[in-house]
Amino acid sequence: MTATLILVLALSVVIGLSLGVLGGGGSILTVPILVYVAGFEAKEAIAASLFVVGVTSAVSVLSHARGGRVMWRTGLIFGAAGMAGAFVGGLLGGHIPGQILLIAFAIMMVATSVAMLRGRKKKNDDDGAPVKHDLPLGRVLLDGAVVGLITGLVGAGGGFLVVPALALLGGLPMSVAVGTSLVVIAMKSFAGLAGYLTTVQLDWGITLGVTAAAIVGSLIGSKLAGRIPEAALRKAFGWFVLAMGTFVLIQQAPADLRWFIAAGVAALTAATAGICWFFISSCPLRSRTGRRSKIPSPA
């Protein structure tokens, strides 16, 4: 076993951890690992990521289902809508140049990271009684098809789009939305894979190895779900995804523009951090300082 393969398998465990704990992020990690570490072509990496994430999500559902964190009817309705969009996305992706797909993937990573860093405004708390309501069928079909199209096309955007949609449309608490999203992700991933397999051949040896390692990570992640503070984990993962998205975007840019893009992203990040620190009272960058200032000094 080569050092590269060992590294790929080790990183694949993190893919499963992300799916098990956050209900998303699998493809965000899988595609860069397969392209830049395993040496896959862009289309092959996207297709393989759909298989890896689909199988891993299906396995992860079992642990969440045993914990009562899966709403099957909601997941199946949303997933069925997403499958049509994912299959069309997979068909289209097979005919789009790989560089364009990776640029679209990088943009999706940056958008996902921003959404993660912003966090969610929770109307319900997991510790209280969730306010469940009837699913607006038309909205579910539309959202499912759009999310499925994005997932099938670039192999990303599944969990981090599905979880908020389930929380808003179905009134599900976050832990249940995460478990239910895995049903949706599995269905959409296999539909998108079917579309890609009409034009793409996979290296099944590496793909199955990555899948097995990701399953191990997902089982660990399912056990850890609820034990790790979600907000802290999501923000840390968000910064990591932002860095990875920037890296992919720079790699796909023309050589003479790479330093310009890197400097621009760095300047934008620094400006955003400065604005947050100096002008936003609830800025998370200085939350610790704010908490300390509220502690009364000893007499």
TrEMBL record:
The keyword Membrane is assigned to this record: yes
Keyword check for Transmembrane helix: yes
Broad class of where this protein is predominantly found: membrane
Transmembrane intervals: 6-38, 45-65, 71-93, 100-117, 145-169, 176-198, 204-224, 236-253, 259-280
Compartment annotation: Cell membrane; Membrane
Keywords: Cell membrane, Membrane, Transmembrane, Transmembrane helix
Pfam families: TauE
Matching InterPro entries: TM_pro_TauE-like, TSUP/Inactive_protease-like
Bilayer topology: Multi-pass membrane protein
Identification of the protein by name: Probable membrane transporter protein
